[in-house]
Write a structure and sequence with these properties.
Elements (H helix, E strand, L loop, with lengths): L1 E7 L2 E6 L4 E5 L7 E3 L3 E4 L2 E4 L2 E2 L4 E2 L5 E3 L6 E2 L4 E2 L5 E4 L5 E2 L4 E2 L5 E4 L18 E3 L7
Parallel strand pairs: 4-9, 7-10, 8-11, 9-12, 10-13, 11-14, 12-15, 15-16
Antiparallel strand pairs: 1-2, 2-3, 5-6
C-alpha cells in the first residue's frame, strides 16, 4: 500500500497512495515527544497530511504527541502506546472514530475544543481517558 517512505531524525513517515500517512517509531531511538508533520514533500510535490489512519501509531514509544493543525480526522485504533502520557488535539480535528487511543493507560488528552464535537464518535474515548477541554498550546 505504501507509496513513499521518508525518514526524518530516526522516524519513518509513510505516505500512502491515497495521500494519508503513518508514523513509525524506530525502536532503537528514544523519543519523549514528537510533533507530527503537517506536510510531506516528495519529488518536488507537496502533500498535506490531514488524516491519521488506523494503526498509524501502533506500538510507538513516544511519551508525548503534538498533532498539527492540518489533521482533520483520526481513525479508529490510530494509536496504541503504553508509554504515551500526553497528546494535544487541535481544533482542526473535526472527525474522530471509535477507540482512537488503544492501550494508552497513562494518557491525558488535551484539546482546543470546548466539548466533544458532534462528528466525534460516541466511543472515541471508550476507556475514559482524562480529557482537558479548551486548552491552548503555548508555542
Amino acid at each position: 500500500n505504501a507509496c513513499h517512505i521518508i525518514s526524518n531524525n530516526g522516524v519513518l513517515y509513510v505516505l500512502y497512495n491515497d495521500y494519508t500517512s503513518a508514523v513509525i517509531d524506530i525502536a532503537k531511538f528514544s523519543y519523549s515527544k514528537i510533533e507530527l508533520l503537517d506536510k510531506i514533500t516528495f519529488n518536488n510535490k507537496e502533500y498535506i497530511v490531514d488524516t491519521i489512519e488506523s494503526y498509524a501509531g501502533y506500538n510507538t514509544t513516544f511519551e508525548e504527541i503534538e498533532i498539527p493543525n492540518s489533521i482533520v480526522k483520526i481513525c479508529s485504533n490510530a494509536i496504541k502506546n503504553e508509554k504515551l502520557k500526553k497528546i494535544f488535539i487541535p481544533i482542526s480535528v473535526l472527525y474522530m472514530d471509535e477507540q482512537v487511543f488503544v492501550g494508552c493507560n497513562n494518557l491525558t488528552i488535551s484539546t482546543e475544543h470546548l466539548e466533544k464535537p458532534l462528528n466525534w464518535d460516541e466511543n472515541w474515548n471508550l476507556e475514559n481517558r482524562v480529557v482537558e477541554w479548551n486548552i491552548k498550546l503555548n508555542n
